[in-house]
Amino acid sequence: MGKASSKKPGQIANTSGQYEQIGPKGGKTGHEVTVTQGEPLPPTPKPGMTYTLVDKTKHKSK
């Protein structure tokens, strides 16, 4: 699997799942949010923080 791309607050999530907040210097914060595909990522507590997808939502097969 390739390197995860980071997204800025307000950008649209192209995949539903758990997104971890990444600090301004690239460090993990341990704080995750659940975002649905097509929804914007929420604001972060500090400027310069981004989000990285850490766990995609699993959908049942029909």
Keywords:
single chain; 62 residues; mainly beta; four-stranded antiparallel beta sheet
Describe the structure.
The chain is mainly β and 62 residues long. 0% of the residues lie in helices and 37% in strands. The protein has strands at residues 6-7, 17-22, 28-35, 50-56. The protein has a four-stranded antiparallel sheet, with no helix packed on it. The mean pLDDT is 90.
Listing every helix as H and every strand as E from the N terminus to the C terminus, the arrangement reads EEEE
Oligomer: single chain
Termini Cα gap: 26 Å
Strand residue content? 35-45%
Instruction: Give the beta-strand count.
Output: 4
Largest sheet: 4 strands, antiparallel
- Mean pLDDT, to the nearest integer, reads 90
Q: What's this, in brief?
A:
The chain is built from no helices and four strands. By secondary structure, it is mainly β.
Write the layout of secondary structure elements.
Elements: E1 6-7, E2 17-22, E3 28-35, E4 50-56
Antiparallel strand pairs: 1-4, 2-3, 2-4
